[in-house]
């Protein structure tokens, strides 16, 4: 396949590019700064600059993957930063749609990044793609607007999928290095009450699930990309401690995190139990369905 990726230099984008190239696909990474590639299957295409004309280089795509957007967990959520987070997702998605409009041969599928934040938080509810609960917090509003923009691709006759990512676990990037650091310093412990749910997924299953979506013609709409066995925060910390052979003893109270992180503390203090119902019904098999084996693969490799 010929696959274009917007946001191909980020955490998921880099892992996905490497994986797809090894599977024999040609990957076109849209970037503001095009550069030569040492790999014949990976191409960097200038995008979002006044001079750029990416449509000349990707005229016959099979698929478009949009992962672009400012990270939600790289700084305190001031009102200005929340607006940047929202705008970065909407503007990138609009740019993807504009580019696809220019293409004479439309891609068969658009896979647009999304997030389980759309479901809101809950101590006891179980969320699947069919959940209809609506909430009005910042994350939910952002995801709803993001998906509504991406859905316009359907008007071009393009199969459209919203990949609602959970907490993605990887060795060098994402949330895990920050979670692991206190344990490496022998000061790890339960965050908040410990009873909040954490819906996680191994980065390897993220890229495999995206390839599965590319190859499965009857998948459209929302797809939860989370491991089938979410865990509570206390168990997550205890498992990290077990894998690293470190103690799990020093708790981090709610008030301290709320003081430190402000509204962003919702990411760690208020969880959600999200299941990948659609992927499982269609036959996708997770390489790492359970947390302990996922952490061993990441932290001991």
CATH topology title = Rossmann fold
Please tell me the total number of domains: 1
Helix fraction bin: 25-40%
Which secondary-structure class do the elements indicate? alpha/beta
Average pLDDT: 92
Q: Determine the number of helices (DSSP H or I, runs of at least 4 residues).
A: 10
CATH architecture descriptor: 3-Layer(aba) Sandwich
Estimated share of beta-strand residues: 15-25%
What can be said about the biggest beta sheet?
Answer: 7 strands, parallel
Q: Which series of helices and strands comes N to C?
A: EHEEEHEEHEEHEEHEEHHHEHH
Q: At the first level of CATH, what is the class?
A: Alpha Beta
User: How many beta-strand segments?
Assistant: 13
In the CATH hierarchy, what is the superfamily? Answer: NAD(P)-binding Rossmann-like Domain
Specify the overall morphology.
globular
Radius of gyration over alpha carbons? Answer: 19 Å
Give the spatial strand order of the biggest sheet. Answer: 3-2-1-4-5-7-11
* Low-pLDDT windows of residues: none
Q: Kindly report how far apart the N and C termini lie.
A: 31 Å
InterPro entries: DUF1731 (IPR013549), Epimerase_deHydtase (IPR001509), NAD(P)-bd_dom_sf (IPR036291), SDR39U1 (IPR010099)
Protein name: TIGR01777 family protein
Family: Belongs to the NAD(P)-dependent epimerase/dehydratase family. SDR39U1 subfamily.
Domain NAD-dependent epimerase/dehydratase: 3-225
Which features does this protein show?
301 residues, alpha/beta, Rossmann fold, 7-stranded parallel beta sheet, two-stranded parallel sheet, 10 helices, 13 strands, 36% helix, DUF1731, TIGR01777 family protein
């Amino acid at each position: 396949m010929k696959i274009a990726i917007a946001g191909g230099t980020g955490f998921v984008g880099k892992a996905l590019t490497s994986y797809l190239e090894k599977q024999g696909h040609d990957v076109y990474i849209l970037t503001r700064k095009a550069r030569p590639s040492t790999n014949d299957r990976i191409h960097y295409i200038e995008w979002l600059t006044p001079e750029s004309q990416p449509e000349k280089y990707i005229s016959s795509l099979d698929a478009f993957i949009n992962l672009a957007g400012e990270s939600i967990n790289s700084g305190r959520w001031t009102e200005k930063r929340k607006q940047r987070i929202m705008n970065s997702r909407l503007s990138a998605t609009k740019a993807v749609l504009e580019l696809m409009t220019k293409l004479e041969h439309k891609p068969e599928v658009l896979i647009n990044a999304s997030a389980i934040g759309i479901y809101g938080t809950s101590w006891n509810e179980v969320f699947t793609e069919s959940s209809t609960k609506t909430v009005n917090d910042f994350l939910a509003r952002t995801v709803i607007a993001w998906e509504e923009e991406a859905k316009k691709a359907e008007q071009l006759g393009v199969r459209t999928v919203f990949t609602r990512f959970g907490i993605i676990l990887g060795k060098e990037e994402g949330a895990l290095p920050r979670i692991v650091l206190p344990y490496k310093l022998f000061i790890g412990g339960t965050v908040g009450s410990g009873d909040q749910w954490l819906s996680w997924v191994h980065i390897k299953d993220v890229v495999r699930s995206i390839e599965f979506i590319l190859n499965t013609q009857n998948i459209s709409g929302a797809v939860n990309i989370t491991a089938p066995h979410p865990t509570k925060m206390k168990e997550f910390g205890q498992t990290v401690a077990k894998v690293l052979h470190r103690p799990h003893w020093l708790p981090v109270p709610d008030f301290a995190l709320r003081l430190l992180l402000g509204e962003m503390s919702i990411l760690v203090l208020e969880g959600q139990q999200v299941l990948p119902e659609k992927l499982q019904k269609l036959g996708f098999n997770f390489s790492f369905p359970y947390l302990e084996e996922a952490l061993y693969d990441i932290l001991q490799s």
